[in-house]
Amino acid sequence: MLEPAYQADVVVVGAGVAGLSAAHRLTSAGVTTMVLEAAHGVGGRMATEKIDGFRLDRIGQLLSTAYPELRLTPGLGGLVLRPFAPGVLLHGDGRHHRAGVQPGTGGARGALHAVRALASAPRSPSAPRLPRRPVAVPGRQVSAPRSRSGAPLGTAVDQARLGAALTRLAGTPAERLLARPELPAGEALAARGLPARTIDGFLRPLLAALLCDPDLTTSSRCADLALRAFASGRLCVPEGGAEALPELLARTLPAGTVHTGVRVTSVSTTSVTTAEHGEIRCRAVLVATDARAAAELLPGLRVPEFHPVTVVHHTTDEPPGTGASLLLDADLGGPVAHTAVISRVDPSRAPAGRALVSSTVLGRPPGGVDTAVRMHLARLYGVSTARWETLAVHHTAEAVPAMRPPHDLRRPVRLIAGLYVCGDHRDTSTVQGALHSGHRASAAILADLGAGRSLHVADPVPTVPRAA
């Protein structure tokens, strides 16, 4: 008679990275937690398709080694991150130029050697021959012949100013960035005192890739945080595909915590109702789904606009000679926002003897997207793509929540006592934002329930036959 009338302390609805990271913090504090996921696998949009030995990300957002939550989230100690080559590789005026190389990642001499090697690689037949370009290294100036056009980073003085700006940004506390006046990112760039050529040739394509926002309508505060992470870390991807991160979180939770194939139809402060198992009672509910699904369970919750993303995966047995670089188009001459021979970054993503080239198109994809992407990739890499095999074209209409100003980077996670919400739509629309949102939600739940005391031993999910 004294048994509590609930089956778990907290029910988390959704097994994306936000919900799973919250579940880790809750279980670590002795709070019995049940994670319910409607799909038959964890991860949500961080999904990886497996085809003939290839691992193909559906969205493939770029991560940074500077993301604090990758280090702070329990359960991610075993995550292996595969970094891209330092900085990024820009394609401008028919040539490759390396930019954004940070101190301690090979130095000016190594970066200059890399650029010289790339400069001798085959160029697009239609591309004019230009002199070698200098390299942007924060805090340092590298002497190299300048082209008359100054493409794509401007003169050596311009590059030194860019390097100094990135160095300052890397050392600026996040709180100071969040206190800056807020504008759309594209408008804010023009007020930073950098030459238009540097902004258009480097910062715009870089931010578009980091934010999945080709028009740079994102809040300048979010853009500053993204540039700060770029300036203080290395761009990277999880080894084995994007799904490796949520799968690691799920695997390191206590056995029986995560239940897939369970669709939640309604929530309250003391229970959730599922299509398969009826009512499950609890002391608190955390809705950790995507924004649209959260609004269906929590009427009145705002649904943001979204940035669509299309990822096109090709394979070839003759990979282009760009190494493990992230390649951006400084000329914006086609649909591809960024591309990489991703198997050079993470060899586990392709079988031996094959290369995997993954390319991202932002916004609404053009008609005949694969043909348009192939033509653009031929110019970017300077090789024929006619014999490349298309493995998959993944289009996600609601891939990344938009963060247009005014954007609250810390939207409330506690709706009322007993009912909470988290996800990248409550923070920043990055993996870092999703993890941090889960961190904030779990802290609010622990404060309300009373952290540090064991509350209940979770009952198993009822084995009621699935409804027809």
TrEMBL record:
Residues 120-153 are annotated as: Disordered. Its cofactor is FAD. It comes from the Bacteria. InterPro entries: Amino_oxidase, FAD/NAD-bd_sf, Flavin_amine_oxidase. Residues 17-446 form the Amine oxidase domain. Pfam families: Amino_oxidase. Residues 120-138 have a biased composition (Low complexity). Keywords: Oxidoreductase. This is Oxidoreductase.
